Each structure stands twice: as structure tokens, then as C-alpha cells.
Amino acid sequence: MDWKSKFEQALGYHEFLERYGSEGHRERWQRVYEAVALTRDQRALLQGFQRDMNLLVLAGVWCGDCVNQCPILQRFAEVTPRIRLRFLDRDEHPDVRELLSINRGYRIPVVVFLSEDFVEVARYGERTLSLYRQMAADRLGPACPVGVVPPGEDLLRRVVQEWLNEVERVQLLLRLSPRLRLAHGD
Fold first, then answer.
1. 139 band by pLDDT with thresholds 50, 70 and 90
2. ω before 166 within 30° of 0 (cis)?
């Protein structure tokens, strides 16, 4: 896959929502965005990043998992210039959708982590462990959920941390990469 070309075709967070979302979609995303609060330590970690990284997110504005997780990534990108964040619509990019299918399903959001020169470094998605644990508790027991609601404050805090853990893992992978260390002389 030519990730650089796909990244160049992709849209920033607000442009993605404007192009593909209705007013209702944008309101749902905004509610989660406003609920995402990074701690001082999380902000310091992001601000300490030394390698540029490109995050390409396959998503859909209509998708509840995207609503509840993509605003987290936007918050990260706002804290550090080292993260360039772009979004592709799942349905308009069937080649990417096929490549990133999980368990033969078109699940989203999926993030492709790319180095500064658009080499694929990692993939992560579509839900974090905390989200799966919550889903299992809700759906595998005697009760089941009645509808899509934004994650509670505690769950959101855990999901933010899990996404940050993955972003940090990739940042460290980039920092320790012999190829990039040679290129940067560090």
C-alpha cells in the first residue's frame, strides 16, 4: 500500500467531520471530544515526543466506536506537533478497508501508524481492552445494553490511557529504530 498517497488523500479531523458527517454526527463527536481530559502527565509525555509520526485512521462518522475513540486521537494531536493525524472514510477507500479488515470484518476505527517517511510501523484498533471488557460485562451476562451511549467517565479515562500507551509504544519504536537513529544522528 502506498501509505504516503493515502495520507495525502486523507482529511484532518474537522474536515473529515464536515465532509462526511451530519449535524447530529458532529454533535456526538463533539460531546466525546469535550469529555476527553488529558492529565498533566499525559500532556507532558506527548509534548516530550521527539520523532514525527503520521497516524492514518480508517473511520466512519456514523460509527459509535469511532465517535467514542477518534476524539481522543485528536486531543493527542493538539498537544504535540509530532503527531500528524488524518482520516479516511471506510466506505470511500475499499482498498484500505480490505487491507485493514479484522477477523474478516470491516471494523473501525483502525489506526495505521506511519513513520515520518510513511513506512508502516504498527496498526491498532478497533477497540481497546477496556472497551472489550465493558462489552463483555454488558453482553455476556444476564443484562444487555439498550442503546449506544457515550462511555462513562471512568471508562473514557481508561480508553484514553490505552490509546496513549499504544501511541507511546510506537513513539519509542521510532526513537529506537536503527534506521531513524542513523538518519537523525542520535
1. confident
2. no
DSSP-H helix ranges across the chain: 3-9, 13-20, 23-35, 40-47, 64-79, 94-99, 129-139, 153-176, 178-184
- Residue 150's closest CA among 64, 74, 70? 64
C-alpha cell at 100: 485493514
User: Amino acid identity, residue 25?
Assistant: H
Please tell me the pTM assigned to this model.
0.92
pLDDT in tens, 77-125: 999 999 999 999 999 999 999 999 989 999 999 999 999 999 999 999 9
115: exposed, middle or buried (Cβ count in 10 Å: 0-12, 13-18, 19+): buried
68, β-bridge pairs = none
- Read off the pLDDT of residues 30-67 as tens digits, 9 standing for 90 and up: 999 999 999 999 999 999 999 999 999 999 999 999 99
Per the structure, the complete domain to which residue 116 belongs is given by 3-184
Q: What is the domain count for the chain?
A: 1
Q: Residue 110 belongs to a domain with what CATH number?
A: 3.40.30.10
